[in-house]
Amino acid sequence: MKNKQVTFMLVVLSFVLVLGFSVQALAGETYNIALSLAITGPTSDVGSPYSKGAEDYVKYVNDEKLLGDDKLVCFIRDDGYKTEVTKRNFEDFLDENIVFYLNYSTGSTLALRQDFDEEKIPVLPASFHAGNLVDSNYIFLPISSYSSQAVGLAEYVAANHKGSGKPKIALFLHPSAFGRAPRDDVKKAIAAGLGVELVEVVEHGKDLDNTAMLKRLKSKGVQYVISQTVQPPVATMLKGAQSLGMIAATYGEAGKITFLGCHYAGGPDLIGLAGSAAENYYWTTSYKLMTAKGPGTDAQLALAKRYGRDVKVANSQNYTNGIMVVQVAVEAMRRAKTKGIKVNRANLYKEMLAMNGYNAYYPLTTVGPVTFSKTDREGVDTLQLYVAKDGVFHELGLPFASEYVKKIK
User: Fold this and answer.
1) Cα-flanking dihedrals φ and ψ of residue 391, to 5°?
2) CA neighbours within 13 Å on the CB side: how many for 37?
3) What is the pTM of this model?
4) Domain spanning 146-285+385-408, CATH class
5) Which ranges in 282-387 belong to alpha helices (H)?
6) What is the pLDDT of residues 89-103, one digit of tens each?
7) Nearest to residue 321, comparing CAs of 34, 43, 57, 134?
8) Which CATH number fits the domain 27-144+292-376, given the four candidates 3.40.50.2300, 3.40.50.10350, 3.40.50.720, 3.90.960.10?
């Protein structure tokens, strides 16, 4: 009798163990990705909504089972915009067996690119510095580089200037690799025939008074200033220009200066910083703003509402940016799963390189498709021009791609 009871208990135990393994199998795989960025410190105005966008889309992927029974985990850490902290974060993330990595700053992306190659892990940074792609195989830019954006803005100036002669422009740049990136490419585009005259390149400091600089540019006949930096120094410059009565009320107004900027040098937050001085500021990015109604913007607003984000975050292009990089990583995973291959670094890298032609990816958060290949790791090639009117950035014209970028590559 005792032997029968023991046998019965062993059968029950075996059944429980088998059931447990079956439930675990049905639960699916878990894929780990990671993000290190500046939630605090310098550029936290960008990093904070960016992290929220990434976090919310990961929740959405799991809640809506976009990867079936598989689960997505994203480890998010604040690095305070310090490269040494980013390095430590990345090393810790590697212990979590991450299959995809989302980096942030230009400095840390450049510092870690050899590590990315050694680890053979696909990386999408928040930095759109074209130099990230040099001597690297595993870094992909989500959208058009700063260089492509600046050249695109210079093309717009050349095509729409109504005065006589070549329009005179100046570049207002952040004193770093992040800021200087477009300088040489704009010069190359001019040498290739782009019809603008580059009068001066200004690397701004931390000055709260740009009066002397603005007067100097005006005395040299500068009609357009293209900014490649972050929002606060642009806001300071615009306020100074407004106090001097220099801001053009209409595009290219004679005797005035028309101000333009690349992705991080504009957006809804700039209006909050500069107030009325941001009126008629021209700005470009590859991301859709919430003022551009459509399925993509409707989905983003619904996502923000679903996870309790306020209106400011919901409308930030940097919230969009955070969503989009996770979208691309998830799409690579989805494509690997569809092919029945393992979701790992090597296969995700292959899927990234295959996103082109008929296999281009349309995330709806951008104004054009995401395309990558072995010879082109710069994502969305198209740009959208926006202009600030009555305190809101609105679309101006249709999305466009820089012609001169193709000529100088």
Assistant:
1) 80, 15
2) 30
3) 0.90
4) alpha beta
5) 295-306, 311-314, 317-338, 345-353
6) 999 999 999 999 999
7) 57
8) 3.40.50.2300
